Structure formats: structure tokens, C-alpha cells
Amino acid sequence: MKGVLWLAWRQQRLMILTGAAVLLACAAWVVYRRSEMMSLIDATGWVPCPGWNGGCESPATFQIMDGNVTGIRALGTLGVALPALIGVFWGAPLIGRELETGTIKPALTQGVGPRRWFAARFGLAALFTLLASTAVAALVAWWWAPIANTLDGPYWHDAPIYNATGPASVACALFALTAGTLAGLLVRRVLPAMGAAFAAIGTVTVLVTYFRRSWIDPETRITPGMTPKRPVGSAWSTGEFGYLTPDGREHSIWNVCQTSGEELRRCMAEHDFVARYHKVYPSSDFWTFQWIDTALYAGGAAVLLGLTVALLRRRLA
What we know:
Layout (H helix, E strand, L loop, with lengths): L2 H42 L14 H43 L2 H5 L5 H31 L14 H4 L4 H21 L2 H22 L7 E6 L11 E9 L5 E3 L8 H10 L4 E7 L3 H32 L1
Antiparallel strand pairs: 1-4, 2-3, 2-4
């Protein structure tokens, strides 16, 4: 390792080594906690009971869930926060600190062009971002898998699971790094750049989360007459449910027939309702949502990186 790559490593090694140490500590903790969970599963002969209303709960279920749900959610929360941490504390100072202190000038007087200098610094940061976010996503998924979508445990659509596992979490981390880097280049001062990066990353993440359920149509589950409804199970309920008329028109339960038993039967007959409906996203939609989010974050990262490279020479002049 020499030249601009050696300089990039020298300036970022504290961040990289600290991050690596935290990841190793997290990995050791997950291995220990998961091994305890698997030993308990084997000892009790526990069989997973998917869904919060599956009707197959047992004392072993509550024991296993109580001992692991909090830890999985804590690790997942770290995964959710990781992109913002990377964008604010690594991306924003990546160029912003050099511009604010003026230390970039000596580096560029050694026959090194700004783009080559940037490529080494950003490339090293992006590599560690990719490795760190992938490692955290893998740890969360590995610990969660044996009790996935069980009882009151984390479900695939819960934020600590969805936003901390899958390719979208990795793409989000890379987007955050590029957003922070561009903020540092434009603002030229570290603290304001950190604030701008946090605002940008938070805004984009909130918008993606808010509009996520508009990416695809939910599945409509129809129950004829008074037939017992299908349990929600591991699906993600939209909160849209109600009644159907013979011609297929939907009537929300919030407007009519908020009853049960014989009263419900009479109310349905009075309004000529022939079935009930409930709209959900099945667990199989996890990957559809993930790949859409991944494309959005990766596309955003590519645009921001291209803009950074295009502005680099002008801003460093």
C-alpha cells in the first residue's frame, strides 16, 4: 500500500479499526446469544408458531421469545441507525474536514489529481461501508431466522428487521456515505455538513418508508359470509378490511357493521354484504419491497456520486 491509497488508509484507519472492533464485539455477542437460544430450542423441542394469532402458543414459545426479542431488536436498531452514523460521522468529514483545515492543498501539490485523491479516499470508505452494513445485516438475519415472524417477536415488516436486513440496508448505507460526502464538498465545514447530511439522509429514509406500501398492490383476502377469517399470520396488514357486496364493491368496516356474532349476521344481511375482505402484504413481498428500495437507494447513491465527481475539480480550485 502506497501513494494516495496509503494516505487514505492513514487518515481513516482510526475510524475503520474502531468500526471493525465494534463489529467483532457485536458478532461475538450474537454468536453467544444465538447459541443459548438454539440450545433452549433443542432442549424444549420447540416448533415455531408463525403469526401473532396462530393459536399454537406454548410456554416454550414465550420463554424463547422473551429471552431474544429485545436483543434482536437492539441489534436491528443499530442496523437502522448505521447509514446515518456512516453518512454523518464518516461521509461529511471525508472531504469537508480537508477543505475546512486546508490540508487538502499539500496533498494535491504532490502530482496527485483531485479525482485520484478522491477515488482513494471514497473507495476505502465505501469498501468498509459495504462490509460493515453487510455484516450487521447478516448478523440480524442469522439471529432472527429461527424465530422469524413468531408470536409477538419481530416480523419481517418491523423496522429493526426490514431496515436492517436485506440488500436495501446495504444500499442505504452507501447512499448515506455519498450524501455525507457531497454535503462536505458543498458546505466545506464539518459541523454544518454533518447537520446537512443528517437532514438529507433522514428525509430520504422517511420518504422511502412512507411511500413503500404504494410500490405494489396488497393481496385481498376474501372470506365468504360468516366463515371464520383467515389468520393474519406473518402477513403485513394494511389496516383495510370490511365487507363486499355481490357486485364486488368494498365497504370499510369503519363505516358499517362494527359488530360480531348474530348482530354481525343481521347487519350484513341488511346491507346485502356477501363476504368480508382484508388487505395484506404476504411475507413473500419482503423481497419485492427490498429490491425496489435497493434500486432507489443505489440509484440515489450513483447520482450523488456522479455529482460529487463532476463538482470536485471546481470546488477544489
